[in-house]
Amino acid sequence: MGLSTFKPWSIGMALLACSGWALADEAVIQKKLQQLIPGAPPAKIQESQIPGLYQVSIGPKIVYMSADGHYLVSGSIVDLNTRENLTETAKNQARKTELEKLSVDSMIIYPAKGSTKRTITVFSDIDCPYCRKLHKEIPALNEAGIEVRYMAYPRAGVGSPAYQKAVSVWCSDDSRQAMDQAMESGQVSPKTCQNPVQKHMMEAEAFGVSGTPNIVFDSGEMIPGYAPANELIKMLVKS
């Protein structure tokens, strides 16, 4: 059958049928996810670069599922022609989207000097030596036009000394000064109040944070550990 025998309406019907299959596949996957995680919000589902495999975005996390919902794949898809890690690119975009949803008012912010060129969000633990090391380098980051936003992630958990210190810092009249003191000496005057520390910890888990400091760029790229200020500046403020 030659191409000329196809009518415009037949091509449109074929595209509509394909779209219908995709919607049916998405419904199957959403149903399976609801069975696995009852009450979870709907995931963002789209066709991946591999036929029959769907990319599933749950907040900043990316997994893949088969069209029938029977198989889940956790790993990276790499385009061997371009060497691009397509999964990491998708994760960066998902993290960027989730960053924009976070409450800036709940963070402790060290603003850039002059105009703000870039922003980093740091999940930090006051009792973490490398968090303290990074904290000492905030002035250099600020001078380079990088705003630093802190979120609390006391790794020892709720009720731990690190948790109590985080609460005290966030409850202080001058939380930035309290953070400086805590990062310098490991101590802070005890305070209590309505605070965002537990919410920050939940958000850290959603981002896949497992250690501190954990640095998330405004682009969504994540650095899971300490990096010197000079390296961060090179990565963030390219000359």
Tell me the CATH topology of the largest domain: Glutaredoxin
Please give the share of residues in helix.
Answer: 40-55%
**Cα shape:** globular
Order of helices and strands: HEEEEEEHEEHHEHHHEEH
Helical/strand content category: alpha+beta
Percent of residues in beta strands: 15-25%
Distance between the termini: 58 Å
Mean pLDDT: 88
Which architecture name of the largest domain does CATH use? 3-Layer(aba) Sandwich
Strand arrangement, major sheet: 7-9-8-10-11
Jot down its keywords.
41% helix, 239 residues, alpha+beta, Nuclear Transport Factor 2, Chain: A, 2 domains, Glutaredoxin, disordered N terminus, four-stranded antiparallel sheet
Explained architecture:
- Helix content is 41%, strand content 19%.
- With 239 residues, it is of the alpha+beta class.
- It has 2 domains: 7-99, Disulphide bond isomerase, DsbC/G, N-terminal (Nuclear Transport Factor 2, Chain: A), CATH 3.10.450; 104-236, Glutaredoxin (3-Layer(aba) Sandwich).
- The model is unreliable at 1-21 (pLDDT under 50).
Q: How do you describe this structure in short?
A:
With 239 residues, the chain is an alpha+beta fold.
What topology does this entry show?
Layout: H1 8-36, E1 44-47, E2 53-58, E3 61-66, E4 72-73, E5 78-79, E6 84-85, H2 86-99, E7 108-110, E8 118-124, H3 129-136, H4 138-143, E9 146-152, H5 161-171, H6 175-185, H7 197-206, E10 214-217, E11 222-223, H8 229-236
Parallel strand pairs: 8-9
Antiparallel strand pairs: 1-2, 2-3, 3-4, 5-6, 7-9, 8-10, 10-11
Helix pairs in contact: 5-6
